[in-house]
Amino acid sequence: MGIGCAGRLLSFPGMTSVSAPGKIILFGEHAVVYGRPALAVPVTQVHADVEISDSSKDGIWIDAPDIHLHAELNSLPSDHPLAAVIHKFFAPLSSPHFLKEKMGGQRGVEIKITSTIPVASGLGSGAAVSVALICALSSHLSHPMTNEQVNALAYEIEKIHHGTPSGIDNTVITYAKPVYFVKGQPIEIFRVGKPFTVVIGDTGISAPTKEAVGDVCVLWEADKARWEKVFDKIGEIAKKAKEKIENGESEELGELMNQNHALLQEMTVSSQELDQFVEAARKAGAWGAKLSGGGRGGNMIALVKPEIAETVAGSLKEAGAKNTIITTINS
Ligand code: MEV
Questions:
Q1: Span 106-118, mean pLDDT?
Q2: 119 CA → ligand 1 middle, Å
Q3: Is residue 199 in contact with ligand 1, taking CB distance under 6 Å?
Q4: Is 202 tagged catalytic?
Q5: pLDDT digits 0-9 by tens, 81-91
Q6: CATH 3.30.230.10 spans which residues of the chain?
Q7: Domain with CATH 3.30.70.890 in the chain
Q8: Taking 80 as the threshold, does the pLDDT of residue 105 lie above it?
Q9: Among 22, 76, 254, 331, which has the minimal tally of Cβ within 10 Å of its Cβ?
Q10: How far apart are the first and last CA of the chain?
């Protein structure tokens, strides 16, 4: 248990600032929606940032320049994902009285939301904004929350974004640790026996997770026996990968990534660009590569020897990557 959000917030009288990381799924996306295990890790090179300041202006003002939004909370539809986070945060606290009590002489708050995580790209942008916003409200209004509470609330918002999310994105971002995730089961943080290097390549194509998840569901409805077998294979890959990561045998993850990518292709969630990037990374010497997240666009990942990370990133850029990130996975 313990108090959540610690370690990523800065708080001064009248001002709170919180940052939440992005994430990548190493193994098991899509199959995780059907109860199979998946592995995800935080990526701190990209993040969502929320700053709350006391204001002499009445009300709760949201300023999200990335999406050209500047509005008072009550002027937004209640199912707007940002408004929904705030409404759900206040729901158990009988909002107006709670806010007045906590605000002392101040009349309202200004909430500034920015993010370096590309939207609909498989890096968890929606979940990161939700987690940062919940943690910022919790700290600014001196209403401590546990990680479990933050995670549960962020999951409610994921349902608005994605329809039927497994909960892996909000979980890895809330705990900001590597997670072995099985839907509906207690959270398991896994140990990284030996750090390893991953290059992330962004196609720059935004692809809503909801659509890819919906399309996989249509395939599954039409032939459950076939797709359950595919999900089983992916689940087995994720289990093996966890063992290898814990034992520090990360070089061997490359082949598992390749196998996982082939199964995602079969599931129709890859794309020409993702396949080209995966191929380019392998040709440049990566041990293995796969798409990461919902697919159809967004990002892919390649497992590399640290010495060739820059070369692989260069090859991805030549193949058309809009951005690349080199990240070290550790505990
Ligand atoms: C999205 O990051 C991962 C998916 O498996 C969807 C989910 O788990 O909710 C595609």
A1: 91
A2: 14
A3: no
A4: no
A5: 899 999 999 88
A6: 8-188
A7: 192-329
A8: no
A9: 331
A10: 19
Taking all residues of the chain, what is their mean pLDDT, rounded to a whole number?
93
Quick check: CB of 296 below 6 Å from ligand 1? no
> Ligand 1 centre from 170 Cα, in Å?
10
Give 116's pLDDT tier (boundaries 50, 70, 90): very high
pLDDT band at residue 213 using 50, 70 and 90 as cut-offs: very high
24 lines ligand 1 (CB under 6 A): no
What string of DSSP letters covers 46-71? EEEEEEEEEESSSEEEEEEGGGTEEE
Q: Compute, in angstroms, the gap from residue 192 CA to the centroid of ligand 1.
A: 22
- Quote the tokens at residue 58: 């009445």
Measured at the CA of 325, the angle between CA 168 and CA 63, to 5 degrees, comes to 65
Nearest CA to ligand 1 atom 9: 165
207 touches ligand 1 (CB under 6 Å): no
The residue with tokens 């990526």 is 43
**Does the domain spanning 192-329 belong to CATH 3.40.50.2000?**
no
The strand pair at 59-64 and 108-115 is best described as parallel
What pairs with residue 54 in β-bridges?
109
